[in-house]
Amino acid sequence: MIDRRGSSGWRGVALVAVTYVYFLIFAQFAFLSRLAELNLGGASLKIVLAAMAAGGVIFSLLAPRVDFIPSPTHRLRIAFAACAVGALLCLLPLGIVADLGLSFLIGAALGVLTVTLVTHLREWMGDRNPLLNVGLGTGIGYFVCNIPHLFAATPQDQAIIAASLCLVGIALASTPSESSPTRVPTESSQFSFLRALATFAALVWLDSAAFFIIQHSPALKAGTWQGSAHLWTNASLHLIAAIGAAWLLQHRRSGLVLSPAFAALGFACFLLRNPALALPASLFYPVGVSLYSVALVAYPSFLTSATTTRERGIQAGWIYAGAGWMGSALGIGMGQNLGHVPTLFVVVAGSVVLIPAFLQLSQSRTREIIALSISFTVASVIYCLLPARSETPALSEIERGRRVYIGEGCIHCHSQYVRPNSPDVLMWGPVQDLQQVHAQQPPLIGNRRQGPDLTQVGTRRSPLWLRAHLIDPPEISGGSIMPSFAFLFGDQRGDDLVAYLASLHSGDTQQQFAMEQEWQPAASALAHADLEEGGIIYQHQCDTCHDANGRARLQYLSQFKQPPANLVIGPFQYLPSAASSADRTAQFSRISKFGIHGTDMAGHEYLSDQQIASLTLFLMKQSSTAVHHP
Amino acid sequence: MSADRQPSMPQHATPGVAGAVWHSLVWLVLGNTMGVMIAILLLLPGLNPWLGEWTYGRWMMVHMNIALYGWCSLPMLGFLFKVYGADRGSFSNWCRPVLWLWSGALVAGSISWLSGQSSGKLFLDWSGFARVFFPVVMEALWLLLIVAFISKPQGDPDSTLVTRIAKMVGLIILAAVPLAIYFASSSSVYPALNPDTGGPTAASQLESSLGVVLILLILPFGITRRTQSLSKAVTLSWIVFLAEAGLCVALGRTDVSHHRPAQYLSLASLLVWIPLIPAYCAAFRWHAATRGWRIAMFWWWGGLVVSGWVLFLPGVLDRIKFTDVLVGHSIVAVAGFLTALLIFVMIQLMGEEDAWIFNRRWSFHAWNLGVLAYVVIISIAGWIEGANPAFTIVPGPAREFLYIVRLLTGVAMLAGSLEWLTAASSLPALERHVEVELQGVNVA
Most exposed residue of A16, A306, A523, A616, measured as fewest CB within 10 angstroms of its CB? Predict the structure, then answer.
């Protein structure tokens, strides 16, 4: 079936996707792994890769000039066939000379394939939404490569799959219709060839450097490409970004594709300098890559100002040879030699991408730029002149911690208000004086409790508990949905926050303690106590500290004021041995609910009477076992 | 309901109004996207490490503030452009820069919230540079409005002495808003408290509700005209408003509990606006295309007023304070009532030809039914939580189920808003170099 005017362009989508999958999963990945399996490294590896780049550069430039195979379909089929042969040959245990030849063949075949495909892509993309089809093909290509089964497959399997896809490509590359000029919204006057060449070179360079650095840093690789969740996320981000890029190109917003592509890639490179930030980097990297990858196909196919097919082909050749192959080689070289992307290079690359975009923008958005510049300047001057800013006194640890509390948006999950004459008082009390609330600037009452009220948290929790909880909430409070704030402990903020939280105590604590001492679960709750439920609560809430091998116990053993009691063998310092069973039940319940003041033992004030009774039943059972089997 | 026709209104949106619509929708979509992300984080807290330092709490600030100062505020710019004639004539080219400035301030704010800067005040969260930049942007808007107002030709048939005085008063009030925002964002300013809940007093709620009523009463004068027949509803509405304003003053601004009968009974006075607002609106001419959203607005308004009063009653508020029920109530306010009002106003501002972007059936229902389902689900969760805090703090299957359904309703709302944004992006007035013939003025 030939795609004619009015057709959907599915062949074009498939051809772009197949080409990307071959390039990404085989040429960039499996082939390199295969070379590593063949113990090729050091200078030999560099020479082999240089051969691929040479093949790519030479044949990208030659492809549009090859006159003895006039049919683009035939050229495409030959290129696909050569790619397939290259993939299959790499399965053999070749020596360095053969690898050199094979590498050149792969580069050459890819050069012909990519340039021929984009030069004639109009013929396969249909005329309904050709740019969206480009985005779809690119997105699918990246998506497929990130499917965990394919991504984690052996190099041999990946090579076979790549070769098979080339055969599919041969079948798809049917003779295009000559009478179906595709109409697309072009903005050629705003996006010159030289600008495209320089922009793509900068972006490919950044991408290749980041790719190489991630691939050769185990910590970064673990944070970005390992695990099914990561890969599915990457796949989805690639697909969404690619379709988004295509939509923007379709609506003549190329500036909104390449500038954000640079921003995402540049930011990812910046984050990659710290392995702890590999996770956020892994969100930006695929977005940046997919954004520009769509443009890399769309520009020579549809957006160039070239008026003839031959001119389009020559431009595509230069872009793929210069920006693609050379930019890639330079990026890999940067990754190899420096191990990171220098900030200065990001600035230079940013200038290449953003300055033309800014100049273009300034022509159509002169008033916006003037208004923004004036307002920004005026605001900056006022901001610098504000007296409050220059006269800020040095803050105490607690005051700094309060700022961290505010800045992290803690009030969106934690209130600081104990409502008088309500169940709040027993759980989070005592009640704070209203004048004290008003004296805070500002009061941090909040309006929502996703977690406990913190008005008196300094009474109820020790600094060690607060620190441990901020670092790993679900471990310390089983089932907690609070995010980890471990990053705050990379500098002073974590300790400041702990100091602030520990300072939150006021009111009549003795009366509060007396009220807690009088409390016991409702009789009905005790009557319906469930041992199984108690065991589950114990596992979630208690065993991290009270189990002999509990994670928190092992991690903080030397820092506890008193080591947490082992609830199987004791000793139970706060549980009088001579007490009756009823008294022991009451005391276990109180400790479970309110903790032990003055120690690191925290309460679980928010648990219902029924849950506390079940937990108590479980603990009684455990401790009675201890008595019988010391 | 009165006649739905107003032949003198332009059929297409002016570039200024179209720009305001587009910018509003961009922030709505961004806000909804963040809302969906936040809802996912509450279900899958294991995803939090992916956000690095941009944790849940920081995103909540961005989510709430861009909803408030983006989606809920930018349509008001379109309204002001229209009222002061800034979207027509020689200064109309400056509407778009002012809109970009406003969005720029929101970007500056978002950067500050994501980088951990906050005033600590939920709805006046401007701090650092953004606290200065945003008022400066508001001043730029004011400058455009006053220039447009002064440059309006004297012979304009719409420009009577009364309207000029009213607009002048409006400008004087608007001039004070940037400073008010700056000082109200200060950490040392905080309203009176209900000592039994830590929340607002009835007087505070009455005051803010009357502020909304005042906007509803003023809005028609800027964007449409009265019907031919005299309406008692208009006179009655203003009398009731003044009476309630007096009541508000009498209640004062002290810390008072909601258990005091004077508090919840005075708040009950707002119930009179449930029939009055539709009656008041019926005294004005509206485009026929506004009908769907106008009626939706009345329904949400009724729900908001009734639920606002019921949730304030002793016994009820004691149970639901700090729970998801109040989240549901705020969703009724912002996503239900306010959104319906804003869209209704935007359709009126744009004209009938461009009304289709908001009037497609599926997005209308996706939004309104999504909000309704959201409110029901979250209210159930909150009511349970009111008796058992562990329901939220240590989530179990029941809470997870409710939150999954809540997430789906959020996705429906996001889908609806995405369709509006996609449609608005094709508004003719947004096209570069397009010429729009409008009331005899050739606007490039």
Answer: A523
Q: Would A590 be classed as within a structural domain?
A: yes
What's the CATH code of the domain at A479?
A: 1.10.760.10
- Residue B86 falls inside a structural domain: yes
Nearest chain B CA: its distance from A96 CA (Å): 42
ipTM: 0.90
Q: Which CATH number belongs to the domain containing residue B109 in this structure?
A: 1.20.210.10
Q: Which helix (H) or strand (E) element contains residue B438? A: strand B436-438
State residue B32's pLDDT score: 96
Range of the domain at B331: 15-443
- Within 260-299 of B, beta carbons closer than 8 Å to A belong to none
List, in sequence order, every residue forming a beta bridge with B284; answer none if it has no partner.
B226
Q: Domain range holding A577? A: 519-622
pLDDT for the residue A547:
87
Name the H helices within A446-563. Answer: 457-460, 463-471, 473-476, 493-502, 509-518, 523-527, 531-541, 543-546, 551-556
- Residues 48-107, chain B, touching A (beta carbon < 8 A): 48-61, 93-94, 96-98, 100-101, 104
Chain B residues touching A408 at Cβ < 8 A:
55, 57-58, 116
B255 touches chain A (CB under 8 A): yes
Q: Which residues of A touch B179 (CB under 8 A)?
A: none
Express each pLDDT in A160-169 by its tens digit. 999 999 999 9
Could you report the average pLDDT of every consecutive run of 10 residues in chain B (444 residues)?
A: 46 88 96 95 87 90 95 95 88 92 95 91 88 94 93 69 88 92 84 90 92 94 81 91 93 89 93 95 93 96 96 94 94 96 95 91 95 96 91 89 95 95 87 41 32
User: ∠A18-A269-A155 over CA atoms, to 5°?
Assistant: 35
- Of A412, A436, A489, which to mutate for an interface test with B (greatest number of B Cβ within 10 Å)? A412
User: How near does any CA of chain B get to the CA of A2, in Å?
Assistant: 32
